[in-house]
Hints:
Layout lengths: L1 H15 L4 H4 L3 H23 L10 E6 L5 E2 L5 E10 L6 E10 L5 E5 L2 E4 L23
Amino acid sequence: MVSLRWLSLCAFVLSLVPSFASADEPSLADLAQRRVEDGLVKPLALFESRSFSRSRPPPRERRVRVLQTTATLDKNGRSFVPFAIDVRFGADEWRENDIVGCAYTGSGKLFVKRGDEYRPASFLFGKNEKPVAGVCEAAPAGS
Length: 143
């Protein structure tokens, strides 16, 4: 009897202890930021360091800003998080929104905006990527 009572008391006490598992998990914004840094910012810096161009010099520094803390669903029901990359040349002020786009939470795919269209991020590395319709655009409310 004593062991059953002891076991019940332990179970009750453990149910009162808050779960720390979620405290260790990175937030959606942290995951998206890391994905953009690893999948776009670092490779873009490497690409620019290896190529010669008469266009503007590469920025000295880039920073990623995740623009929402929650995911948005696109017209196909896939969730994404919008981001912006700011740049700084020399000791100048930050130039915001040099690159804007979105990171898809399920697949990890990155898209960047050029004009009014979104293209796969590999477009920035010189690949001939066509615009992709419907990505990075929120589904209409109520759908």
